[in-house]
Amino acid sequence: MKIGFYNIQGGTGKTTLAANMAYYISDVVKTVFVDCDIYGGNSALFFNLESVPETINAYLNGKYSPGEIIHEYENLSVIVSDPTPAAFDTDLNVEKLVELLNHLDKKYDVVILDLPPNITEGNILFSNEELSCKMIVVGEDSIPGVGGTLKTLELLDVLGTPVIGTVINKDRKIVEYEDVIENLIAILPYDEEVEEQWIIGEPIVKKKSHFGKELSFLTEDLLDVYIEKDLATQRAIEIAKEFKSHIIGEEEEEKKDESL
Ligand SMILES: Nc1ncnc2c1ncn2[C@@H]1O[C@H](COP(=O)(O)OP(=O)(O)OP(=O)(O)O)[C@@H](O)[C@H]1O
Ligand SMILES: [Mg+2]
After folding, report:
1. HSE on the CB side for 101, CA within 13 Å?
2. Is the CB of 35 under 6 A from ligand 1?
3. C-beta 5 within 6 A of ligand 1
4. I want to staple 44 with a disulfide (CB 3.0 to 4.6 A). Which of 49, 136, 207, 232 is the partner?
5. For the whole model, what pTM was predicted?
6. Class of domain 2-259 (CATH, top level)
7. Does the C-beta of 211 come closer than 6 Å to ligand 1?
8. Minimal CA–CA distance to 23: which of 13, 31, 11, 35?
């Protein structure tokens, strides 16, 4: 299953949530994190991969195969984008990007997509028919943040993209979100430690920090309520398919026997 983190507004915490939740989820099921912010991504910094040449940009430029751009960060597989200005030389072929994501979906239980803000010509949201990705909308606690989140939810509705729920990040008790946003699944605190982790060079959040604790609760909920159910359904579908092909195989064998 693919889960995207999105908001048309920048800087709300999409990458922070996507990278950390992917890391937590990878303790339980086979998970890959993919930085789809081709021109503006910074996930390489989260995983200490800022100087690797094997990026999603290099894949899109035809330099590497999907298998060659996967890096391992403990249990988590990671695909980063080029964090340097050389990223602007990337040929954003959306079909090739969707092909990569669908390839990963077959190999992993969960594919986490860190999406860019805004709506650009090449935004993969518009290819959702072939992509079949479900979204977590990450909004931030501010008045413009409410506007951005409501606009994002409206956009996803118009595009027919399923939404798992909205997370409000950087909560400083400015807005009572429960009264405004219907599909709220979590409110995560503004926590200076999140910013400080950049300075110490460990952007993956410790579960014991205020933000980390709340984020790990959200991840557990997501695993219990959503991911495990979805994986169980997928396994049931696979068993049903195998069962069906077994029966059809047996029927064909019987037909062959009868015709002899
Ligand atoms: N809960 C939080 N408390 C404090 N700072 C936070 C929190 N969440 C994220 N940040 C900080 O906010 C900044 C933006 O976060 P991040 O890069 O995850 O946002 P983004 O939505 O991915 O941005 P972009 O739209 O540019 O991709 C970072 O410096 C990050 O450390
Ligand atoms: Mg980001």
Report:
1. 28
2. no
3. no
4. 49
5. 0.89
6. alpha beta
7. yes
8. 31
